[in-house]
């Protein structure tokens, strides 16, 4: 299978404090990789560094076989940041049109793509409202809808279900699994341990290190645990 992400010995420091320590992992097409860990573990920094928003001190990150940033492949990547990057004076619809155009969608495709993504995140009735009037959860849903525009080959989602109710979260994950079946690769960070159970592989990130990386079933077997949450607690305990 095609390798969509490849990280080798990736390191990053801020003010002489090491935030990422020799990170190694890869992600192939048709695979969901989850990253879990407490706040401050380095999940968002890892994503920003691989996407070229932060410069790595050492190591290499290839995204779709390219070093980032690279505007030529941006249309093939769906990215949802931990903090919403939206134009609040515009409506939800206007935001989606803008980002669809930025991704290079053909004019004839934009309306259908927006309808599908908005329905998925249950925002269709709110698209004509200005984003400034949205609740925090609605902004997260709009950010997710924008990431899904354009049939990306790779989705990188940083805490995509924060502020989303359980029923909608289930619907979102149904769509993510369908995208996986269609060959899309997905990297998802989450604090929700139940979501980590839905991935093909999960990385446990702690203090800038990936302390374990395997399928949920293998991790639970290796640590003699009944859940990924128990795996994380046992793995963390071994380091103390």
Automatic annotation (TrEMBL):
<keyword id="KW-0547">Nucleotide-binding</keyword>
<dbReference type="GO" id="GO:0016887">
    <property type="term" value="F:ATP hydrolysis activity"/>
</dbReference>
<dbReference type="InterPro" id="IPR027417">
    <property type="entry name" value="P-loop_NTPase"/>
</dbReference>
<keyword id="KW-0067">ATP-binding</keyword>
<dbReference type="GO" id="GO:0005524">
    <property type="term" value="F:ATP binding"/>
</dbReference>
<dbReference type="InterPro" id="IPR017871">
    <property type="entry name" value="ABC_transporter-like_CS"/>
</dbReference>
<feature type="domain" description="ABC transporter">
    <location>
        <begin position="5"/>
        <end position="232"/>
    </location>
</feature>
<protein>
    <submittedName>
        <fullName>ABC transporter, ATP-binding protein</fullName>
    </submittedName>
</protein>
<dbReference type="InterPro" id="IPR003593">
    <property type="entry name" value="AAA+_ATPase"/>
</dbReference>
<dbReference type="InterPro" id="IPR003439">
    <property type="entry name" value="ABC_transporter-like_ATP-bd"/>
</dbReference>
<dbReference type="Pfam" id="PF00005">
    <property type="entry name" value="ABC_tran"/>
</dbReference>
């Amino acid at each position: 299978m095609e390798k969509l992400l490849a990280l080798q010995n990736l390191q990053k420091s801020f003010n002489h404090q090491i935030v990422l320590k020799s990170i190694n992992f890869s992600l192939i097409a048709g695979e969901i990789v989850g990253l879990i860990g407490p706040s401050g573990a380095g999940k968002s920094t890892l994503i920003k560094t691989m996407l070229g928003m932060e410069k790595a001190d050492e190591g290499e990150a290839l995204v779709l076989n390219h070093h980032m940033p690279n505007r030529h492949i941006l249309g093939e990547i769906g990215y949802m940041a931990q903090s919403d990057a939206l134009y609040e004076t515009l409506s939800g619809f206007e935001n989606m049109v803008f980002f669809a155009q930025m991704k290079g969608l053909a004019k004839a495709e934009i309306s259908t793509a927006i309808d599908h993504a908005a329905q998925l995140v249950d925002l269709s009735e709110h698209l004509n409202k200005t984003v400034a009037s949205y609740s925090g959860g609605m902004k997260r849903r709009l950010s997710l809808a924008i990431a899904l525009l354009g049939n990306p080959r790779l989705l990188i989602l940083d805490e995509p279900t924060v502020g989303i109710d359980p029923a909608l979260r289930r619907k979102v994950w149904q769509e993510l699994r369908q995208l996986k079946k269609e060959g899309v690769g997905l990297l998802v960070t989450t604090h929700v341990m139940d979501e980590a159970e839905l991935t093909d592989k999960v990385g446990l990130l702690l203090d800038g290190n990936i302390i374990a990386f395997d399928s949920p079933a293998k991790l639970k077997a290796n640590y003699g645990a009944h859940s990924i949450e128990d795996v994380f607690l046992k793995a963390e305990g071994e380091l103390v």
